[in-house]
Design goal:
By secondary structure, this protein is of the alpha/beta class. The chain has eleven helices and nine strands. Helix 1 crosses helix 5, helix 2 crosses helix 11 and helix 5 packs across helix 6. The chain is globular and about 55 Å long. Bound molecules: N-carbamoyl-L-aspartate.
């Protein structure tokens, strides 16, 4: 088991064996979370602060549950959307918190790169819970865990990531992870929502769902991220659903045992058919949420081990 990171800022800095280490430990935490008694002490004595400068339901809740189940003192800072300012303000906040000696800082921020910047200013371990359209590493890890548990492996699979790739940190972190683990990645969506130069990531691009989904093992849907769009990227939601919304007909082009994923929150009837999303024979969307808690426990546990291994003077 090797994990040499001080922070979890993205998938980009991780080695494949470090990804495997997180997934292996996460498997243990999946079993642990299914027990009646869910108290452990891997984070006992440590202080975890969750700073979410953007709205979140499942990510914030699962980081909080993960920390509490491992015995950390967990605090959620209420960051008002209206008080978000770039640069100085973020650093000032970080310095203020740093003076309170937290051990784990979980940060979501609307600006790409903001979490990396913050990590340079504090002494504790920083976990990126999503920064702009840059990275969302725990989402990619929980997706990988979900796939590995269903397919028995996380390499040499055909995986389609569909929809609003351009605005998605989930897509970016998933592409990085799935590429590192040697999968075949297809991106499917309207050309307006596929970032230019994406071919450099070793992906195949399709603008047609039927062709893009042909014989894939995994179909990963993305939310249309209207909050990050500053113009007309699609003609209408109705038209988008018709061409790119996942329904049983489009899914029939994938492998018979292909699984359907979505990071949430879903727009039913826009990117995915509601009945398909609820079909427990095809959809693993609820499994993704369950895996999310386990992955965040594993990530914080590994970071805490590295934190404890460092001489304490560094922390003063
Ligand atoms: C994603 C996010 O915030 O990037 N959601 C999540 O963390 N579960 C995807 C999204 O907002 O569409």
């Amino acid at each position: 088991m090797r994990f040499d990171q001080r922070h979890l800022l993205g998938i980009e800095p991780l080695r494949p064996d470090e990804i495997t280490t997180i997934l292996d430990l996460s498997d243990q935490y999946v079993d642990f979370n299914r027990r009646r008694d869910k108290h452990a002490n891997a984070l006992a004595g440590l202080t975890q602060i969750n700073m979410f400068f953007e709205n979140s339901t499942r990510t914030q809740a699962s980081f909080e549950i993960a920390g509490k189940r491992l015995g950390a003192d967990v605090m959620n800072m209420a960051m008002q959307a209206s008080s978000i300012k770039k640069g100085e303000t973020l650093i000032d906040t970080a310095m203020t918190l740093n003076a309170m000696h937290p051990d784990l800082l979980v940060v979501r921020h609307p600006h790409s790169g903001a979490v990396d910047l913050l990590a340079q200013k504090v002494n504790c371990a920083v976990l990126n819970a999503g920064d702009g359209r840059h990275e969302h590493p725990t989402q990619a890890l929980l997706d990988a865990l979900t796939i590995r548990r269903d397919k028995g492996r996380i390499h040499r699979l055909n995986i389609a990531i569909c929809g609003d790739i351009a605005h998605s940190r989930v897509a970016r972190s998933n592409i990085l992870l799935l590429h590192k683990m040697e999968n075949r990645i297809r991106l499917v969506g309207p050309p307006t929502l596929i970032p230019s130069g994406i071919d450099a990531f070793g992906v195949e691009v399709y603008d047609n769902m039927e062709e893009g989904l042909k014989d894939v093992d995994v179909v990963m849907m993305l939310r249309l991220q209207k909050e990050r769009m500053d113009g007309g990227f699609i003609p209408s939601e109705r038209e988008y659903y018709h061409r790119y919304g996942l329904d049983a007909e489009k899914l029939s082009h994938a492998k018979e045992d292909a699984i359907v994923m979505h990071p949430g929150p879903m727009n039913r009837g826009v990117e995915i058919d509601g009945t398909l999303a609820d079909d427990i024979n095809r959809s693993v969307i609820q499994d993704q949420v369950e895996m999310g808690v386990a992955v965040r426990m594993a990530a914080m546990d590994l970071l805490a081990r590295n934190l404890r291994a460092r001489p304490s003077e560094v922390m003063v």
